[in-house]
Structures are given as C-alpha cells and as structure tokens.
C-alpha cells in the first residue's frame, strides 16, 4: 500500500506550525526562479538547500542562475549543489525556445556572490537529509535525474524523505510533445524510478499548472513594488510570457514550479486525487508520457495508487502568494 502523503507540518513544541524542511531541485528557468523566492519567503517551509540539474538550459547555466537568484534575494547562506549535466540515458535537449539560451533571459541578474557546494547535488542531498532532525521533503521542479541518482546512491536515506512533490507530467496534455510534459520527457527513466520509489509522491502536472496563469498585469504589479527584485521579476516574466503568447495565445505564463512549492506550504491551494502513475520510457512518440489512472478510495484494493495528482488550484490565492513573495525581497 502506498504510504499516504503526510499532512502538513505538525505543531512544534510551542504549539506553532513546525516548518517543513525542503530541498528544491531545479533547472532555473523562469518559473524555477519564482519557486525559489516563494520557498525563501514563506514561514511554512525551511529551504535547506538547492540542487541544480540540466534541463531548461545546460547545467552551467541552471547552476549560475540559481546562485544569481539567491544572490539577488540576499540568501547566499543557502547551499547550492550542481547535479547531473544530462539525463540518465538520453541526450540533453534544452528548452531555449522557452527560457532563452541562458535559461533565465529577460533581466539583468547579479553576478553570483557564492560558489556551488564542492561535492555536488547528490552529496548535498545526502548531507542535508542525513543531518536533518526531521524527514525532508524533496521538491523537484526539473528533470528527475538528481533525485533518481540520489535514491540509487543512498538507499538507506530514502526513509528520511517525507514526501517528493514533483512538478512534472500531466493527466491529459503535453508541452514538449503532444504526449509528454518537459521535465518527465527529458529523463523518463529517472521519473519512472521516482514514481516507483515507494516514497509519498505528489505529481503537480500541467493540468493544474496551466490553471495558474500569472498575467502581464500581475507582472506589472511586481514592477510597481519599486524594488530591484520586483523589477527583475517583472522583466523575467515579461520575457517568459512571449512563449506562452505565441504557443497558446495566453496573456500570461503558468508558473509551473511555484505550484509545487505552494502545495508543500499546505495552505489548501491545490486539490489532489489519488492515482496510479506510470511513466512511458519507450520511443520518441510516447517517451515521458505519464499514464495517470485516478483511483477512488473504494477501489484501492484493486489498484494501489502510487501518487497524489494535482487537479485544481485556487489561482487568485496563488497569484497573491507570488506577489507577496517577491515583495518580501529588496
Ligand atoms: O513543463 C514545465 C517544466 O519544464 C517547468 O519545470 C519548467 O521550468 C521546465 O523545467
Ligand atoms: Ca523547472
């Protein structure tokens, strides 16, 4: 029987909500960058560290972008571990058509004031998870290569993972092919490993992230904050919106990765359903498809669910959460 996704943070000794310890694994990426700010700004979570993976851009770019965003936010205390520069078995195909060659085109970012963790992503995950007094929630919002490598390298630490809240996949759509979402498509073998891990997994897929549009008007609210962070993110989101206007005709962008962080905040923004999720690892036409069968509670004896899948989001609350997160930085 699949372990149930844990409820939100229990109360601490003082009766307050204990902060959920998280590691954000990402490929910044415009939406990854906003997910980073959200994780830094909210009292419900404690960001132990950031790990980077090749995906939206090469590893060198995604790592530099993560370091630059932490520098902009004044949070150079957060360790960053650079991970896989390519999928487990396939060649890397970056999303420069969405995020630009650097992975974070559209604004002037600061030169990173910190270097990456010397031992890399998998070792940083092991260090942070091993040293944590409580089980850690992983929030992977890029290809799942690092998480799969960690699970294989440190099987004895898997039990110290409370929850894996993945941005990836979809019930009924694709964005890199008609059949697949980009993160899962990039490394389907890694994704299959994570969904088969036996740890509590939540899949935040396109069905819910495409409901979470951050409009150009919302982006201009960031500029009206009259802060450097507000101006940088207004520019980044204006750039990010280009792809979505061309591709979908939308007046804004889905902030995919921030939905995964928002879910972990446990504020009730995202509705999920139990499901059986299988990942296609076949040829190009179907690679990375997430085959999702929703499972009613009464039916769980016949079909054991292996994940919770996001199906709905309160967009208005989500947008306000993001604006407030950006406003929390100078
Ligand atoms: O398909 C959307 C996902 O792919 C997001 O994580 C975005 O950042 C890209 O990595
Ligand atoms: Ca991403």
Multimeric organization: single chain
Structural class: alpha/beta
| Count of helical regions | 12
Largest sheet: 9 strands, mixed
Strand order, largest beta sheet: 3-2-1-4-5-6-11-9-10
Fold-level CATH name: Inosine-uridine Nucleoside N-ribohydrolase, Chain A
Distance between the termini: 47 Å
Indicate the proportion of strand residues.
Answer: 15-25%
- Taking all residues together, what is the mean pLDDT? 95
Task: Note down, in words, how this protein is organized.
The chain is α/β, with parallel strands linked by helices and 330 residues long. The protein has a single domain (20-327), classed as Ribonucleoside hydrolase-like (Inosine-uridine Nucleoside N-ribohydrolase, Chain A). Helix content is 36%, strand content 19%. The protein has twelve helices and eleven strands. The strands form two sheets. The chain has a nine-stranded mixed sheet, sandwiched between helices. A two-stranded antiparallel ribbon has the order 7-8. Helix 1 (30-41) packs parallel to helix 11 (256-264), helix 5 crosses helix 7 and helix 9 runs antiparallel to helix 10. The longest helix has 21 residues, at 228-248.
